[in-house]
Specification:
- The longest helix has 12 residues.
- 47% of the residues are buried.
- α2 links the parallel β1 and β2.
- This protein is an alpha/beta fold and 230 residues long.
- It starts with a helix and ends in a 6-residue tail after the last strand.
- The strands form 3 sheets. A 7-stranded mixed β-sheet has the order 3-2-1-4-7-13-14. Strands 9-10-8-11 form a 4-stranded antiparallel β-sheet, sandwiched between helices.
- The protein is built from 7 helices and 14 strands.
- The radius of gyration is 17 Å and the shape is globular.
- The protein binds ribulose-5-phosphate (5RP).
- The site of ribulose-5-phosphate has 17 residues, from α2 and α5.
Length: 230
Amino acid sequence: MEQNVLKQRAALAALDELVEGSVVGVGSGSTVDLFIDALATRRDRFVGAVSSSRRSTERLRAQGIHVMDLSELIASGLPAPVYVDGADEIDPWLQMIKGGGGALTREKIVAAAFERFVCIVDASKVKPVLGAFALPVDVIPMAAPLVARELVSLGGFPKLRDGFATDDGNLVLDVGGLQIQPEAARGLEAKIDAIAGVVTCGLFAARPADVVLIARPEGIERVLVGDSTG
Ligand code: 5RP
């Protein structure tokens, strides 16, 4: 079955995870684009959305969904129960590699403001070990060579993402050559995030997903953190 059809199914399934009358946290990427389109069919049931990228903000607005700043959400005290986002890879502990679209830092920030992280993926994203997808690392531009050297010492092969700047004007190093076992992900995230000049890395292990909706040709598999994705 075509990957896009599976992404669409995962996006639709996420609607059942939402809490009416609340603000929805919205990630970034092609799967999230489809989620935004699905959300638009129910936009009157939600207060609005907090977005993790310019791309998502534009799509939300184009679909007539009210976009709130994170500061507005925090000041309002409105309920923020669910954040929905895709992933580049997800492991059996629901730890993820994210940032294929370069929005990893804003995604981590917005996700942190919501109670539950609902990850929507097609089955190709489910991996026993993370790292086949090069790990994105968001870096302050002047620090890129220093950060690259440190990433090599951690066993990685960093490559500067060509001609790319994040929504906040930073650079992204994509780090190949890592094989990240589930029990090692949290430690590696902390190590990389502690390198001077790193804004954040695309490992979401300290705060994994709470729920993953995996679209398979035979249907949606719903896995909670603590279960196994098999
Ligand atoms: C963007 C992300 C995306 O969630 C990730 O890249 C998955 O994207 P897609 O849904 O297009 O496969 O982390 O920064």
